[in-house]
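User: quick one - fold this with nicotinamide-adenine-dinucleotide bound?
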Amino acid sequence: MSSVSLPNPTFEIDAEGIGWITLNDPDRRHNVLDEGVMARLNECIAQAQGHAERGEMKSLVLISGKSDGFLAGADLAAIASISDPADGQEKARLGQQIFKQIELLPVPSIAAIDGICVGGGLELALACRHRLASDRSSTRLGLPEVQLGLLPGWGGTTRLPRLVGLQAALELLLTGNPISASKARRIGLVQRLLPAPGFRAEVAAFARSAPALPPGASRPARSLFKRLGDETIPGRAAVLAVARRNVIAKTQGHYPAPLKIIDVLRASLGRRLDDALEIEARAFGELTATPVHANLLHVFHLREDARKTSTRYPGLQPETIERMGVLGAGVMGGGIAQLAAFRDVDVRLRDLRDEAIIGGLQHAQGLFDKAVERRKLSRTEAARKMARISGGLDWHGFRQADLVVEAVVERLDIKQQVLAECEAQVHDGCIIATNTSSLSVDDMAAVLKRPERFAGLHFFNPVHRMPLVEIVRGSATDDETVATLHAFVVRLGKVPVVCRDASGFVVNRILGPYLNEAGFLLQDGATIQEIDAAARAFGMPMGPLRLLDEVGLDVGRHAGAGFHAAFGERLAPAPALVALEGSDRLGRKNNRGFYLYQRGRETGVDEAVYSELGEHVPTVRGMQAGGPEMPAIRERLVLAMINEAARLLDDGIVTRAADVDLAMIMGTGFPPFRGGLLRLADTLHPRELMARLRRLEASLGMRFAPAPLLERLAHEDRTFYEVFGDTPQ
Ligand SMILES: NC(=O)c1ccc[n+]([C@@H]2O[C@H](COP(=O)([O-])OP(=O)(O)OC[C@H]3O[C@@H](n4cnc5c(N)ncnc54)[C@H](O)[C@@H]3O)[C@@H](O)[C@H]2O)c1
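Assistant: Sure. Structure tokens for the protein plus nicotinamide-adenine-dinucleotide:
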């Protein structure tokens, strides 16, 4: 039987003269605004207009027919299809015109928001005369366009500051982060919070009384200071100037959208609505044509794609993890236990020492306390989740575990012993995973009876903050195990990247030559400040030497030795870094590294470090003294990463360029505006990269010899994404 799609949205008038436009996309989990929905919405509004003019409709409600969401925004495929600025501008105008019809209705219009209401959804709500929100925790309102390198172009940039004031609007527009219904109520974005049970009936009651209400929403009281900043011309100018300074300090000007939003507000506040909408539409069109928008959209798709276990592993039903064991209650074990409990998994921690268990529990408790402080959890919820974690020195609870994550000390012999012991305690179907960052998963699997149920699950430190988890597939790991771990990582709210077992996996392997190159740059006369500044100017959240301090120079050295052993001479440690071996500089953890630290805060470069870098390092340094220039520093750092990423793909450690890009963005903060390491490589093109690497190889040595894959791509005139576009493991 052929199915005919139901119209969406629908319009009807009830017996009491209230019009209802109901959004309910039959084909999607969330409502979105695509071309078809917008056209149909336009028809519904026209119908409503007719009824209102004939006196048959007292008020109009816009509501969702979904049980869990109002509107998730505009359809991204439609945004991605915008061909040029004029097309973008036209699409913005079209949406603006449709929403404007709501504003012009002769009767009150009411957006009834129960669940998520973001992007175009909130813009639609802003065009209504009243906004009501349900009090459930999933009701969140926001304008995330800036996160895709855009601005709200269907009236949101214009209407939001007029409704809530410039300062409150800036926070939403510039961060793109959604806010809760109660915060929306506090800033005047919604007028009333209604209880989620019986929401529709409450909305109907409001709609009956709406014609008697004054048209303008009453703004919550604001301080004199807030009013000066929101309402006076010099006040607004000052607020916008500060906002601009903050944006530049945070983004170094790499992201055009927040700056454009500020420009639009400066040009349009105080102007007639139509003029302001025109400024907004034009600016939207311009932003759609920026490479940063294209890159951010690409990254968004990478993230969404990584969440889909079912398309990655068709036909496999991932098992649900309800109970979990964690071996080792240290920094990582404690963090992993807390994260799992946060997502409602029961956790049993095991360690050899009581103090470690107490430490692990305290660590978890501290994180829950912070979540309460930040209003992410209520006190009761936090206590309930914390109660899911227990710990001890025995194997109590492991027989029931669906998954055990091992996070004991980084020594193969100890891990092998612990894992074999663990396998004897758990049931046959239990998956065992190791959190090792530098040992071989296969070496550990060698001592197990069920290596097919064993894999790596590499969390990054600190677990609660770092979004990436590498799932390391050993040679015996079976598909069900990988699929189950994939689904579990997604459930934890993290981004999974699946890779094969080889030294450094993905992120650390690519960081290896990058960090090492910083050592060679020191040797060639660059200063610590210059090296780190070049990386930051490229967009990395911190420079390589600052990162080495963060990781710990001892840990970095240990990893470097591992890479040298695994990959040979091209990864021989830079002599300047080797020279620090004898010193007691460990980095941030003992307050002395390339930088000095006091109470955990960095206080600047430690100039004394230069004298410890050995005879390899010139005494006079810096660009003025003939050291490498900033572009050369940057080129060496970035090409070292791209070249290693090419080897990693060639070795089959990951099979898709997207995996490298996602891993680097989520695991190291590689700048999203560049779209990813290999997307950047493609923009530069393998041919050009080859030429540059050859030049570096000639002047600096074989560590810059182009990876064979890069040579192949250059020769065939193809890009990474063309060849490694989509072949999941
Ligand atoms: N710290 C990091 O930045 C980081 C990041 C990613 C991965 N890792 C990996 O995670 C693992 C743990 O690292 P960590 O930093 O949490 O170490 P840690 O030293 O803080 O904790 C290790 C814990 O394991 C316990 N332990 C030792 N032998 C044990 C045994 N037989 N049974 C049970 N517990 C035992 C120790 O008592 C200690 O409490 C290592 O494999 C490490 O490489 C660490």
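One thing worth noting: The pocket of nicotinamide-adenine-dinucleotide is lined by residues 327-333, 350-353, 356, 407-410, 414, 418, 435-437, 459-461 (CB under 6 Å).
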